Amino acid sequence: MPDEPNKAADEPTAKSTTAEDTTVVSDVAESGPPTSPKLGVGIAIMLVLATLATLLAFIALWANRQILSTDQWTKTSTELLEEPAVRDALAEYLVTELFDNVDVQGELETNLPDSLQGLAGPATGGLRQLALRGANAALETPAFQTAWRNANELAHKQLISALEGGNERISTEGGVVKIDTRLLLSDLAKQIGLPTSLIDKLPAAVGEFTVLQSDELEKAQKAESALRGMTWVFGLLALGLYVLSIWLAAGRRRRAVFFSGLSFMSVGLLILLIHSFAKAPLVDGLASTSSLVPAVGDVYDVSTELLSQMAFSFFISGLLVMAASWLAGPYRYAVGFRRAVAPYLRDYLPLSIAFVAILFLLVVWWAPTQGFRTTAGLSLNLLLAIAGFAALTVITRREFPDAEAADLSAVGDWFGRHWSNARDWTSERARSIDVPKIGSSEPDRIDELERLQKLHESGALTDEEFSSAKRKLLDD
Fold first, then answer.
1. Nearest residue to 212 (alpha-carbon basis) of 163, 170, 177, 166
2. Contact, 345 vs 393, CB < 8 A?
3. Exposure check for the chain: N or C terminus, fewer CB within 10 A?
4. By the 8 A CB rule, do 342 and 403 touch?
5. 78-126: pLDDT as tens digits
6. DSSP collapsed to 3 states, 94-136
7. 10/249 Cα distance (integer angstroms)
């Protein structure tokens, strides 16, 4: 971001391409930038507050997208089912639900002869093991995974509807929210081979569970409303503090931009560290038995994948802002870069804009961070790119108004000379090939043509050499 005219008091910059100014820039680059005035206590406090607001906005934004977004919730639940440990745990739960609510042993005793009644117990245990293997196999099928995805999508839509007051599909009367997964359980029972008679005997309450009770619903509705508001409040507060601190830092704006980038990068790095170190204690605390640790670990990884992606985006964005601040500084390579691009930004501005636009579109297509995969993130990155390009254009025009583009004619001459020399060498080599005088004897002429063809096919003769020798042979 360009500073005000009094920036000269803060940082020396090159003003022209004369020998004297070049020497000054070189001296500054060699000795390093002079000590800039400090930001001041007021601006430093604003940047600290902006960092805290950014952290709170980040958490609220992630919670909004992870918890309140149906698309993200459905995506996460679908990815969870793809984890083997999660499938094993889910299969165990579903089979347990079925066998706890259906008297399989009693049903077998009813259908077995009196002499085989004693086999009902062992048969039930064997059927349970078969059901468990069948459940695991069923959970891997595309049909069941589609049903799982649809069930989670519907359940989340109903939950959001309940938080917003309910609709005709889900009731909040009495302050109770219920979700019914009985159909999913019934489908699984059929897939693992349980008789229809047993499935029909499933109690009505199986698969139906209460999500929220009266006081919980009221609290959840308030939390949902607060969460949506926090994203905007803290987001706008952070943005306003950043802009205000940079605007008030007259003569020190490059330094303010640098620390704003450092603030963003610090938030991303802090979240990444918390995400990494919090996994072990959270997984150990949530897993009721050691056998559930792998499944809970997978749930943690999948559920917080968006969190780590967003944190990495913040980290990279802050790093880019810091790099832009460095590029606007009085350092040797930064000044050299600005001097090199100055004539193109001045004399070929439309072409420069097109070049930068193509680069930005390539980055959008690549989408290296989460910030390029959402509308809000993409809009913010676009604004930063436009602001950075505009600032670079203003700075280079002010510093190097008379800069000239590099003379590329020497490069063209070099390629021209080498191309001409290579062509002359090829022609000379073709002329030097010993082609015997064979007169008008057609068999000898054919033999010689075949010899040249073999040399050409083996790579001993280039296309041009082969054509020249062939022409010479046919002309004789």
1. 177
2. yes
3. C
4. yes
5. 888 888 888 888 778 777 777 777 666 666 656 665 655 566 666 666 7
6. HHHHHHHHCCHHHHHHHHCCHHHHHHHHHHHHHHHHHHHHHHH
7. 11
Nearest to 239 by CA among 54, 436, 369: 54
Element (H, E) at 179: strand 177-180
CA distances from 204 to 101, 158, 207, 244, 396 (A): 10, 20, 8, 61, 75
222 found inside a domain: no
How far apart are alpha carbons 387 and 365 in whole angstroms? Answer: 21
- Alpha helices (runs of H) in 164-252, residue ranges in sequence order: 182-191, 196-200, 214-248
Indicate if 250 and 382 belong to the same structural domain: yes
Residue 171 per-residue DSSP state: -
| CA atoms of 225 and 229, how far apart (whole Å) | 6
Residue reference for tokens 């007021």: 42
How confident is the model over 195-203, as a mean pLDDT? Answer: 65
Name the pLDDT band for 265 (thresholds 50, 70, 90): very high
Beta-bridge partners for 212: 177
Instruction: Answer yes or no: do 163 and 280 share one domain.
Output: no
Which tens digit of pLDDT belongs to each residue from 301-310? 888 888 998 8
- Domain hosting residue 121, numbered range: 68-212
Same domain, 369 and 292: yes
From the CA atom positions of the chain, what is the Rg in Å? Answer: 37
Question: Rounded distance, CA 140 to CA 84, Å?
Answer: 9
Which DSSP state fits 35? P
Q: Provide the number of structural domains found in the chain.
A: 3
Residues 206 and 251 reside in one and the same domain: no
Asked if the structure places residue 252 within a domain, the reply is: yes
Tell me if 64 sits within 8 A of 227, measured CB to CB: yes
Note the pLDDT of residue 358. Answer: 95
Write the pLDDT tens digit of every residue in 122-156: 666 677 777 777 777 777 878 778 877 887 787 77
The dihedrals phi and psi of 179, each to the nearest 5 degrees, come to: -125, 135
Judged by DSSP in three states, 23 sits in: helix
Scanning the structure block, which residue is given the tokens 């086999």? Answer: 119
Which stretch of DSSP H or E encloses residue 210? strand 208-212
pTM, full prediction: 0.63
Please provide the size of the chain in residues: 476
Please name the amino acid found at residue 386: I
Given a cut of 60, whether residue 159 has pLDDT beyond it is: yes
